[in-house]
Every structure is written in structure tokens, then in C-alpha cells.
Amino acid sequence: SLLAGFVMGSRLPRHTYGFIQHVLFPYYFHIGSACAFLNLTLFAMYHPSELLSDEQTTQIFVFFVCVAASVLNTQWFGQVTSDIVADMHLVERSHGLGQEVGLFASKSCRQLRASNPSYGQLSRQLTLYWALSSLCNLCCIVCNGLSLYYLAARLSAL
Q1: For the chain, which end, N or C, has fewer CB atoms within 10 Å of the first or last residue's CB respectively?
Q2: How far, in Å, CA of 32 to CA of 21, rounded?
Q3: Whole-prediction pTM value?
């Protein structure tokens, strides 16, 4: 999805690309949450709590952090980000903007941000929630990487 995002973002009008993200991201976030929960559940089922080693306790913690970050992103950051983007699109559309192609804001959008305080506020909120959502995604990637390392280090035991 990362590569597709860059390709679509560089070839589609910004509002079209934003609409596609608005539709796809909830699915992506829910699938990620379900997989994280499944990983935690399966690991916990096969490792009874009274028999956990320190490494296995750490692994359970890593899975729990992944579930928490994923659910937080699914239920809050992702939804708020999509809502802010939709509000920004309404303002942009009312000023005849949004059909330019490319990932970065055009000169017209920068001027709108400078001249319209409510649009500027939406832009700052979008930056904050996008960063928090990205941080949750990065956290899940790191957790999954640690889990894969844990699994790979024990392949001979399997």
C-alpha cells in the first residue's frame, strides 16, 4: 500500500487520491488490528502465563503494544485524520482547488492556508494527527519486526 500511495499520489488529482485513501484506510487499519489481535491471541494460547520465560513475557508485551497502537490508530487517529481531510477538501473545493496532481500542496493551497485561519487550523490538525497515525503504524512495524526476529531466532526449536 505504501508504493501504491506514492504512485497514486503522484498521478491522481489530490482530492481523488484523498477519497481513495478515505475509503481504503479504514479497511487497512481494521485488518491490521485483527491481525495484531490474532497474533497476540495465538501466542497467548500456546504459552500459558504460569510457564512464560522472560523472553516470552516480552513477546506478549510486544504483541499487546502492537494491538494497542493498531486499535488506537483504527478507532481514533485514522478516523480523525480522514474527517479533517474531508473538511479541508470542502474548503479547497469552495476555492476551486484540489484537482492539481501531486502529493505536495500547491502554491494556491499555501496561500489559502495563510489567508484562511480555519483552513490553517485544519492543516495544523491534519499534520498532528497524520504524524500520530504514522507513529502508530511505525510502532506496529517495529513490533512485527521484533516478533519476526523472536520467531526466526527459535526456528531450530520448531
Answers
A1: C
A2: 16
A3: 0.85
